[in-house]
Every structure is written in structure tokens, then in C-alpha cells.
Write a structure and sequence with these properties.
Blueprint: H1 3-12, H2 22-28, E1 36-38, E2 41-43, H3 59-81, H4 91-96, H5 103-120, H6 131-141, H7 144-157, E3 162-168, E4 174-180, E5 195-201, H8 208-211, H9 215-222, H10 228-238
Antiparallel strand pairs: 1-2, 3-4, 3-5
Helix pairs in contact: 1-5, 3-5, 6-7
This protein binds manganese (II) ion.
């Protein structure tokens, strides 16, 4: 499989994050980015260069965020599940039943998964949603701009660290909300639940170097680098 397709499938596929056949996966994954895997969980390559989202998200932030923060969640998760039955589960199935797990697995499992979604729902812009998704957003929120406003408010008002989401509920409705820390909308303990379609990381490590305390400026910049093609794909799959 070609790298970009693989990385995209990791971001959206229900079972795609588990690669049972490590050797086969390794054979398919060769490009300039490093790739690591421990049993089923892989640490996927960033789908673009560190500076691809400049000036909206700066290269230094991307490098530290991906290569230190995200990698650390991955390493901690791998260590936490080593030798347990979780090792043979998909990350999504682990998260869907997270209420029975430790905080270490909850925090690092969420951190591992959320960042994959986030990297893949960003791209050098501009792009726009498909007409189907645009219509659905207009019908759910009143207008596309209103959706952006509601989503942005979720991101702005999340106290401390966390994530904001556009997600599809079990009854197939579009909704927005936010989660604390590294929680997400597929966790059974989450107050906002559904299939994640679009997410923004509002931990300070996602924006502080460039935007300092101005989270709202980072959120505004985020709209310039949303990968709507990816969001469309998640929406179609979720329906
Ligand atoms: Mn982060």
C-alpha cells in the first residue's frame, strides 16, 4: 500500500490501527519517516513534512508535538499493555471499553489515538467539505459558519487541556463537544459520544510556541489547514 493511503486508513478505519501482520506492514512502510511497531500498534509517520502547515502551525511545534509528545503516548501505551490481553486488541476496542482500564492506559491510549486523528484531519489547505457534508452541517447547525463558530467555542471553552470534536452520534446526528485530557468520543466514559469526524488538540503544547496564551488565534488558524477530504471520508464511513 502506498504510504499516504496507509496513513489515512489508520486515521479512519475501525480495525485499521491493529496490524496483526507486522512483517507485511513493515514491508509496505518505507519512506523517509521512521516507522516503529510493537506487536499490533504502530507509530505512524506524519503524513506531511513538519513545515507543511506553516504559517498556521509552525514546524517547530509540529516536530515537538509529533516526535516527542505523540511518541511518548505511544511508548507509554505499549509499555502499559505489554504482556496483557490488550496487546492483541485494536486501539479502538481498547478505548471503547476504557472504563475497565487504568488511568495510564486511558491517558496514553487516548493520546496515541487522538493525535493520529488530528494529524490526518490536517493538511496544507485550502479545502472544503463535500456538498453532502456541507448540507448536513448546514442542517445541523444553521450554516457552515455557525458550525465553525460552535466548534470553535467548544475548543475555546475547554478548560485546561483537552480536545474539541465534530462527531456523529449513534442516531447519525452531527454534534460538537469537547473532552478533557486525552479522552475522546469513542470512550465509554465520555460525556460526548460518537464517531469522531474532526478534532482539534487544545493542549498548550499544540500552539504555545507560536500563539502563547492566545488559544483563540490558533483555533482560527486551524480552519485554514483542515483536511476536509479526510473529514468527508470519515463521515461517509460513519453513516
Ligand atoms: Mn497533543
Amino acid at each position: 500500500m502506498e504510504r499516504r493511503k496507509f496513513v489515512k486508513s489508520v486515521g479512519v478505519g475501525a480495525a485499521a490501527l491493529y496490524l496483526g501482520d507486522k512483517a507485511a506492514a513493515g514491508a509496505n512502510l518505507n519512506n523517509s519517516f521512521s516507522e516503529e511497531s510493537s506487536r499490533g500498534l504502530i507509530f505512524p509517520a506524519l503524513p506531511y513534512a513538519y513545515d507543511a502547515l506553516e504559517p498556521y502551525i509552525d514546524a517547530r511545534t509540529m516536530e515537538i508535538h509529533y516526535d516527542r509528545h505523540h511518541r511518548t503516548y505511544y511508548n507509554n501505551l505499549v509499555n502499559a499493555i505489554k504482556g496483557t490481553p490488550l496487546e492483541s486488541m485494536t486501539i479502538e476496542n481498547i478505548l471503547k471499553n476504557i472504563s475497565g482500564q487504568t488511568d495510564t492506559i486511558r491517558n496514553n491510549g487516548g493520546g496515541y489515538y487522538n493525535h493520529i486523528l488530528y494529524w490526518n484531519n490536517l493538511a496544507k489547505g485550502p479545502s472544503s467539505p463535500s456538498s453532502d457534508l456541507k448540507k448536513a452541517l448546514e442542517s445541523a447547525f444553521g450554516s457552515f459558519d455557525k458550525f465553525k463558530e460552535v466548534f470553535s467555542n467548544s475548543a475555546k471553552t475547554r478548560f485546561g487541556s483537552g480536545w474539541a470534536w465534530l462527531y456523529l452520534t449513534a442516531d447519525k446526528k452531527l454534534a460538537t463537544g469537547s473532552t478533557p485530557n486525552q479522552d475522546n468520543t469513542i470512550m465509554d466514559i465520555s460525556l460526548v459520544k460518537g464517531v469522531p469526524l474532526l478534532t482539534i488538540d487544545v493542549w498548550e503544547h499544540a500552539y504555545y510556541l507560536k500563539y502563547q496564551n492566545k488559544r483563540a488565534d490558533y483555533i482560527e488558524a486551524f480552519w485554514n489547514v483542515v483536511n476536509w477530504e479526510e473529514v468527508d471520508k470519515r463521515y461517509e464511513q460513519a453513516l
